[in-house]
Amino acid sequence: MGDIRSRGLNALLLAALKAHRDCTEGAPADYIPALAQVNPELFALALCTPDGVVHAVGDADHPFSIQSISKVLTLALVLRESGADLVIERVGVNPTGRRFNSIEAVEENCGRDLNPLVNAGAIATVGLVEGTAAEVWAKIAATHAGFAGRALPVDEAIFASEMEANGRNRAVAHLMRSYGAFARDADEAVELYTRQCAQLVTVRDLAMIAGTLAMRGRNPATGVQMLAPTDVTGVLAVMTSAGLYEDSGEWLFRLGLPAKSGVGGGLIVVAPGRMGMAAFSPRLDAAGASVRGMRALTDVAQALGANLFV
Ligand code: GLN
How far is the CA of 32 from the centre of ligand 1 (A)? Predict the structure, then answer.
C-alpha cells in the first residue's frame, strides 16, 4: 500500500519535471556574481509526506544556496525566542507590494509595517535575535539544522561574493536601524543575514523544511518540535501574503498555498497538515522566483487537490 502511494508520488513529480523541463524562461540571478555561474539547466522537485519520507526527482542531490528561504527560519527563531508581538511591532507582517530589496518600501513606512520576508525586514529580524554575533549565528545555524534535519554548510565563496556586492542591503540595514527596528550594529546584522543566505541545501532539505512547517512545526523525520503550532500559523500567513514578494497575490490566486522563493533557485510550498514541497531550478522570473519551480509545483499541488481555499 505504502509502496503504491510512494510510486504514485514519484510518478507525479516526474510528470511535473518532464512537463516543464524544456522551459528556458527567466534567468539566474546575476546581481550576486557567484550565482550567475550556476548551471541554469539544473532542475529538481521533492515532496515530504507526514511520515517524514522525502520523494525526490531530477538533480535532487545538487547543493545550492538557500538564499531568502532562510528568512522563514530566522522568523521562526525570533517568534520562538521573543514572541509574535515583537515581530509585528518592530518589523511588521504586511506585504509591501515592492521588490524584495526595495529601499522605497522602507522609506515610505519609516522602517515599519514591512515584513520579515523582504530584505529590509529579514535583516531587521536577524537584528532582533538576542546575543553576541557568535551566539546569534549559532542559533541561526541550529534552527536551520533542526528544520532541515541536518547541519547546513555555508558556501564561503557565495558568502564572500554577496558581501562584495551588497551595498543595497547595507543601505537598507542602516535605514532600518535608524528607524529603531533593531539595536544590533547594522553591518553585523547584514553579515549574519548574508551568511544565513549562503547556507547550502538540496531540494530534499527544502522539502523537509517545508514538511516541518506543514506538520505544525514538528520535523516529521526527527520528531523534534522546532516551532509552536501557534507560531507556525503566523509564519505561514506571512509566506502566503508576502513569500513571493510583489507576485504573492497572483501566485496565491494560482497556487492557493504559502510559498517562499530564493534567488538561488530554491522554492518551498507548504500544504498545511498534508505535505511540504520543494523545487530547485535557477532561472528566475522578475520577482526572483524560480520559473520552472513555481510552474511544476503548481501542477503537483493541483493534482493532489492541495489548495487552502478548496
Ligand atoms: N541574499 C539575497 C539578497 O539579499 C536574498 C534575496 C532572495 O533570495 N530573494 O539579495
Answer: 9
